[in-house]
Design brief:
Layout lengths: L1 E6 L21 E4 L7 H5 L6 E9 L5 E10 L6 H8 L2 E3 L1 E3 L2 E3 L1 E10 L6 H19 L3 H14 L4 H17 L3 H11 L13
Antiparallel strand pairs: 1-8, 2-5, 3-4, 3-8, 6-7
Length: 203
């Protein structure tokens, strides 16, 4: 299953400032959003991985996208090339300023690769690894906890829920190590607003 979440950006003046008339223009509207192929890096993980790619791009006055790039992925080792290629083919009704099509910048989109049914054995592996990290945190062994958390993300993390749990745990470790920037980044990944869980998944 592929998810799509959109955050529109803003019109900029030629010198890069936000237009003072930005509140009086119409933002671009999606016309065709090409669905990306399954990420090769997920297939190589045995098809048991969920994940997401966050993109940033511009919508030109002709409705085509430009400057498409991945600004974050989760898991962080994902190859986002297929998501970028899909977004490069997206088309929009252009933004309108007083009846004239204009460029619209700093748009963000979240593409979610989900729907995998993880096996009970997989959940058990993640739970055991998670508990191991928690024990190291409790013992104040934060460097070792970070290393084990990173290993857990590479080898045991599979679902969107596990991504969130691993990132919250990593945030606690980074905070204990004094890296508040990394801790905040982990919290943001764990609480990404474009991720939605079904009722069964959150119980």
């Amino acid at each position: 299953m592929y998810g799509y979440a959109e955050q529109f950006g803003q019109k900029l003046t030629p010198d890069g400032r936000r237009s003072v008339q930005a509140d009086r223009i119409l933002p671009p509207q999606p016309v065709e959003l090409v669905t990306p192929e399954e990420l090769a890096s997920l297939r190589e993980a045995g098809g048991a991985r969920d994940g997401w790619v966050k993109l940033r791009y511009s919508v030109q006055g002709d409705g085509r996208t430009a400057d498409v790039r991945a600004i974050d992925t989760m898991p962080q080792w994902l190859d986002a090339s297929s998501a970028v290629e899909a977004a490069q083919a997206w088309t929009f009704e252009s933004a309108i300023d007083e009846g004239v099509p204009v460029d619209w910048h700093y748009n963000e989109a979240l593409i979610v690769f989900s729907g995998t049914e993880a096996l009970h054995e997989h959940w058990t592996l993640f739970a055991e690894a998670y508990e191991g990290v928690a024990e190291l945190i409790a013992a104040g062994q934060y460097v070792e906890a970070k290393a084990l958390n990173e290993q857990m993300q590479r080898e045991s993390m599979g679902t969107l829920e596990e991504i969130g749990l691993a990132q919250i745990q990593l945030a606690a470790i980074e905070h204990a190590l004094g890296d508040t920037h990394a801790a905040l980044a982990a919290i943001r990944r764990a609480t990404e607003p474009g991720i939605e869980f079904s009722e069964n998944e959150t119980q």
